[in-house]
Automatic annotation (TrEMBL):
<protein>
    <submittedName>
        <fullName>Succinate-semialdehyde dehydrogenase/glutarate-semialdehyde dehydrogenase</fullName>
        <ecNumber>1.2.1.16</ecNumber>
        <ecNumber>1.2.1.20</ecNumber>
        <ecNumber>1.2.1.79</ecNumber>
    </submittedName>
</protein>
<keyword id="KW-0560">Oxidoreductase</keyword>
<dbReference type="InterPro" id="IPR016163">
    <property type="entry name" value="Ald_DH_C"/>
</dbReference>
<feature type="domain" description="Aldehyde dehydrogenase">
    <location>
        <begin position="43"/>
        <end position="497"/>
    </location>
</feature>
<dbReference type="GO" id="GO:0036243">
    <property type="term" value="F:succinate-semialdehyde dehydrogenase (NADP+) activity"/>
</dbReference>
<dbReference type="Pfam" id="PF00171">
    <property type="entry name" value="Aldedh"/>
</dbReference>
<dbReference type="InterPro" id="IPR016162">
    <property type="entry name" value="Ald_DH_N"/>
</dbReference>
<dbReference type="InterPro" id="IPR015590">
    <property type="entry name" value="Aldehyde_DH_dom"/>
</dbReference>
<dbReference type="GO" id="GO:0102810">
    <property type="term" value="F:glutarate-semialdehyde dehydrogenase (NADP+) activity"/>
</dbReference>
<feature type="region of interest" description="Disordered">
    <location>
        <begin position="1"/>
        <end position="23"/>
    </location>
</feature>
<comment type="similarity">
    <text>Belongs to the aldehyde dehydrogenase family.</text>
</comment>
<dbReference type="InterPro" id="IPR016161">
    <property type="entry name" value="Ald_DH/histidinol_DH"/>
</dbReference>
<feature type="active site">
    <location>
        <position position="270"/>
    </location>
</feature>
<dbReference type="InterPro" id="IPR029510">
    <property type="entry name" value="Ald_DH_CS_GLU"/>
</dbReference>
Length: 533
């Protein structure tokens, strides 16, 4: 069904010619876990570091995707019947396996996505944190909830959370392991089964996690992975599921949402951003500059919560820009499977084109390139230097459009209210960052920013790593949230049950309605004054 092409058959095979990578046979083994692929031609994947073939992947037909949903529907009944504590145990076991076997996943993520190893490790930690959080807290969040009934002692009321059924998960290429875990694991814990379509470019990472989840006790049919272009199998992915969790760009999310809504099926959308960072006049400049490097250039800026706009107060602007540029120029670019580099490559030629176009357009419109601003084919086909721009005019594309690459524009301000207004002046609202020595002041400014997550004295990692906090976008950055209780309960149907005892909620036989309504009015006044109701 699948095969791989050794880069150089005369030497031990590596994946995509990346030195130190696992053998290609391992890639084939993982690719074989994907559903279908009997009729469509497989596709070849290229490693961003080298441009060489990593693996060939089966491509499912629409019919095969629909059949996967059918199997998932059958498997769902048995999976949902298992006690939630048993499902949680699978997640806790998976947590341990992910940490134990991280070396292989680090290789795969680097090879498929072109990240530095440290950036790949962010995905290991996010995956482990999510598995641990839901493995530990999930059963409590899903537990039946008692609520005070309308008539004290006489109305017993409670809420249950039932699984939706089969969840469709559509994932992008930029955080292939972490986003798979963040979206698939809570759906499974809630008693759903899942059919996931990862991006072809980074499918092996999702398949790796699938293998580990099965080793941790998940029935293989409970989570099925289908591969193929959205344009070919997208219909089945929006028509079959009982809930759709989509992560990707705002235009695709909007298109799919319109179609999903036609079926009155629930969905969550995790979309794009143009995330601002505010450096307040009292910020520690050195820490803010170091923080900006991580916030802007982790995963080469191909991170939905990455910072692309920095607003820095006039009084410290020069010092900040100099420190930020110095630290940026010290970053080591490279494509080796070790911790010896700081920033990897872009993931696709499309990304390289998009990033180059934004920088070239800004430059042509008069922006200053403080550092970076060019591709680095001498390192690898898709490398681009981390880039800082100043003097970006409002007409430049990079001013308001998401670049999704290692490019940030720095703007000055003299008044904090003005900076807050400019930070909020965007169609997006995903993530923001505030830097101040005064934590209380930072919190106050954070609360004024229209973004789903705001990090004070951090770029994104503080909220990203706190799995108990919901994560998602305001405005065009999304609908719904992942993580926290919301990220689990979205995969459930809420059911309210009330058992009425003794007396009905209507007048007693023969009682004049006026007396009934007077008694009820008095009762409501009393109940409203009771504590904890
Ligand atoms: P994209 O082009 O929207 O694609 C996302 C996923 O949707 C891919 O797997 C894609 O597969 C699939 N897809 C596209 N059209 C489809 C259709 N008609 N039916 C079903 N699936 C379809 O986005 P991307 O370029 O891969 O990802 C980058 C974007 O994602 C950025 O805007 C980034 O900000 C955003 N993002 C957001 C978050 C968040 O949490 N908010 C996280 C990560 C990324 P094919 O391309 O193969 O069709």
């Amino acid at each position: 069904m699948t095969s791989t092409t050794p880069v150089n058959p005369s030497r031990p095979a590596t994946i995509g010619g990346v030195p130190g990578a696992p053998r290609t046979s391992r890639a084939a083994e993982l690719a074989d876990r994907a559903v279908g692929g009997l009729h469509n031609a497989p596709i070849e994947l290229k490693a961003p570091f080298t441009g060489l073939t990593t693996a060939t992947l089966p491509q499912a037909t629409e019919h095969e995707v629909r059949a996967a949903f059918e199997r998932a529907r059958e498997a769902q009944r048995a999976w949902a019947r298992r006690p939630v504590r048993e499902r949680a145990r699978v997640l806790r076991h998976l947590h341990d396996l992910v940490l134990d076997k991280q070396a292989e996943a680090l290789d795969l993520i680097q090879i498929e996505a072109g990240k530095s190893r440290l950036d790949a490790f962010d995905e290991i930690s996010a995956t482990a944190l999510v598995a641990a959080y839901y493995g530990k807290h999930g059963p409590g969040i899903l537990a039946p909830r008692r609520v005070a009934g309308v008539l004290p002692l006489l109305t017993k009321a409670g809420q249950l959370h039932h699984p939706k059924g089969v969840v469709g998960v559509i994932s992008p290429w930029n955080y292939p392991l972490a986003l798979t875990a963040m979206d698939v694991l809570p759906a499974l814990l809630a008693g759903n089964t899942v059919v996931q379509k990862p991006d072809n470019q980074t499918a092996l990472s999702a398949l790796w996690l699938h293998e580990l989840a099965c080793a941790a006790g998940l029935p293989p049919q409970a989570w099925q992975i289908v591969l193929g272009r959205g344009s070919q199998i997208g219909d089945a992915l929006v028509e079959e599921p009982d809930y759709v969790c989509f992560t990707g760009s705002t235009p695709t999310g909007k298109r799919l949402a319109g179609r999903i809504a036609q079926r009155l099926t629930g969905y969550s959308l995790e979309l794009g951003g143009k995330n601002p960072m505010l450096v307040l006049p009292d910020a520690d400049v050195s820490k803010a500059a170091a923080g900006a490097v991580a916030a802007c250039f982790s995963s080469a800026g191909q991170l939905c919560v990455s910072v692309e706009r920095i607003y820095v107060h006039d009084s410290i602007a020069e010092e900040f820009i100099a420190a930020f540029a110095r630290r940026t120029e010290a970053l080591r670019l490279g494509g080796t499977l070790d911790y010896g580099t700081d920033m990897g490559s872009l993931t696709s030629t499309g990304q390289l084109r998009a990033v180059s176009a934004h920088v070239d357009d800004a430059r042509a419109q008069g922006a200053t390139v403080v550092t970076g601003g060019k591709a680095r084919p001498d390192i690898g086909p898709l490398f681009y230097e981390p880039t800082i721009l100043t003097g970006v005019p409002e007409t430049a594309r990079v001013f308001a459009e998401e670049t999704f690459g290692p490019v940030v524009s720095v703007y000055r301000y003299s008044n904090v209210d003005d900076a807050v207004e400019r930070a909020n002046d965007t169609e997006f609202g995903l993530n923001a960052s505030v830097w101040s020595r005064d934590g209380k002041r930072g919190w106050e400014i954070a609360a004024r920013l229209r973004a789903g997550t705001v990090n004070v004295n951090e770029g994104y990692a503080a909220t990203f790593g706190t799995v108990g906090l919901p994560m998602g976008g305001m405005k065009e950055s999304g609908v719904g949230r992942r993580n926290g209780a919301e990220g689990l309960l979205k995969y459930t149907e809420s059911q309210s049950i009330a058992v009425q005892r003794g007396m009905r909620l209507r007048p007693f036989p023969g009682m004049p309605p006026r007396i009934w309504t007077t008694l009820m009015t008095l009762g409501m006044r009393l109940l409203a004054r009771l504590p904890r109701r």
